[in-house]
Amino acid sequence: MHFSAFRLQQAIRNREFTPFYQPIVCATGGEVVGCEMLARWLHPQKGLLSAGNFIPAIEATGLGGAL
């Protein structure tokens, strides 16, 4: 998928990106020892997009800090 810098800026401004938290579990004890944040884009037309669909465009446009 291709997204323009304008569309990405618009999505950031509209708060369309959402963090999803995934627990990190200790393999030996089974307790949660942390979490990993996974960015998702709740795109109004395309639905829920995983990071692989938009992170390359975010990086190419220099918008990583804004995200």
UniProtKB/TrEMBL annotation:
PROSITE patterns: EAL (PS50883)
SUPFAM superfamilies linked to this entry: EAL domain-like
One Pfam match: EAL
Database matches in InterPro entries: Cyclic-di-GMP_PDE-like, EAL_dom, EAL_sf
Family to which the UniProt record says this protein belongs: Belongs to the YdiV family.
Subunit text: Interacts with FlhD in the FlhC(2)FlhD(4) heterohexamer, inhibiting its ability to activate transcription.
Protein name according to UniProt: Anti-FlhC(2)FlhD(4) factor YdiV
Species assigned in the record: Salmonella enterica (Salmonella choleraesuis)
